[in-house]
Amino acid sequence: MKCPMSSESACLSMESRASAAPAPRALPYYVAFSQLLGLTVVATTGAWLGLYRGGIAWESALQFNVHPLCMVIGLVFLQGDALLVYRVFRNEAKRTTKVLHGLLHVFAFIIALVGLVAVFDYHRKNGYADLYSLHSWCGILVFVLYFVQWLVGFSFFLFPGASFSLRSRYRPQHIFFGATIFLLSLGTALLGLKEALLFKLGTKYSTFEPEGVLANVLGLLLASFGVAVLYILTRGDWKRPPQAEEQALSMDFKTLTEGDSPSSQ
C-alpha cells in the first residue's frame, strides 16, 4: 500500500528502522531455554506414565493415561509455542506468522480433544462419574475458552472480512485471553497431577514415594515452563517489530480516521 505523499519520508524512515531492527541478543537463549523446559515436561510426563502408571494404550485400562499426556503436549507445550511464534519469527511476513500461530493452536486443540475423548471414554467403560472434581470443571472451562479463542481469533485475524480497525481494537483482548488461557491450562494440569497422586498414593504421598517425588518434579517443570513463556511474552523490548507494510497500513488508517484521505494528498 502506498503511503500518503506528505508522509512518504516518514514511511521510508519507518521502513528503514523496521528492516534494520536487530533481534535482541538474549531472546534466542530464553526461547531455547523455554523449549528445553517444554520438551523436558513432555518427556517427564511420559516417564511418569511409563514407570508408575503402566504406559499408554487405547483399548485397555491404560486408556486413561492418554489424557494427561495429550493435555500436556497440546494445552501446555504446543499452546506455549504458539504464543511464542510472534517473538521467534520477527522478520517474516505477518500473514505467514499468523498462519503458523493458528496452525499450532489447531494441532494443540486436536491433541487435547483426543485426551478429552480418552478420559470420558475411560470413565464410561468403567462406570466412573464425570465432571465432579475441580480439575474436571477447570479442564472443561479451559477447553471451551480455548476453542472460542481460536474461533474468534480466526474470524478477526485470518478471515479476510475483518476490517483493520476492528482487528486493532480486538488485538489487546486477544493477547490478554491467550495468556490467561495458558495460565489456566497450567493450573488445571497441576490440579490434575495432584488429583492423580492422591487417588493412587493416598497417605503414602507424604512418605516421599518415588512416584510422588517424580510427579512433584514434573509440577515444578510445568510451572517453570509457564514462567519462561510468560517472561518472554511480557518483555516489551522483545515484541515483534512492525514491518514496513504494517506501519504503512497503520498510518493510512490514522490519516483516514482524522478525516484526511491519503488519496486527496
UniProtKB/TrEMBL annotation:
Keywords: Cytoplasmic vesicle, Electron transport, Heme, Iron, Membrane, Metal-binding, Translocase, Transmembrane, Transmembrane helix, Transport
CDD domains associated with the record: Cyt_b561_CYB561 (cd08763)
Gene3D superfamilies the UniProt entry points to: 1.20.120.1770
Domain of life of the organism encoding this protein: Eukaryota
Single annotated GO MF: metal ion binding
InterPro entries found in the cross-reference section: CYB561/CYBRD1-like, Cyt_b561/ferric_Rdtase_TM
Ranges where the Cytochrome b561 domain occurs: 33-234
Key word 4Fe-4S present: no
Catalytic activity: monodehydro-L-ascorbate radical(out) + L-ascorbate(in) = monodehydro-L-ascorbate radical(in) + L-ascorbate(out)
Pfam families, A to Z: Cytochrom_B561 (PF03188)
Location(s), subcellular: Cytoplasmic vesicle, Secretory vesicle, Chromaffin granule membrane
UniProt topology in membrane: Multi-pass membrane protein
GO terms under cellular component: chromaffin granule membrane
Entry keyword Acyltransferase: no
Cofactor(s) the protein needs: heme b
Residues passing through the membrane, by range: 27-51, 71-89, 101-120, 140-162, 174-193, 213-233
Stated role: Transmembrane reductase that uses ascorbate as an electron donor in the cytoplasm and transfers electrons across membranes to reduce monodehydro-L-ascorbate radical in the lumen of secretory vesicles. It is therefore involved the regeneration and homeostasis within secretory vesicles of ascorbate which in turn provides reducing equivalents needed to support the activity of intravesicular enzymes.
Name used for this protein in its record: Transmembrane ascorbate-dependent reductase CYB561
Organism field: Equus caballus (Horse)
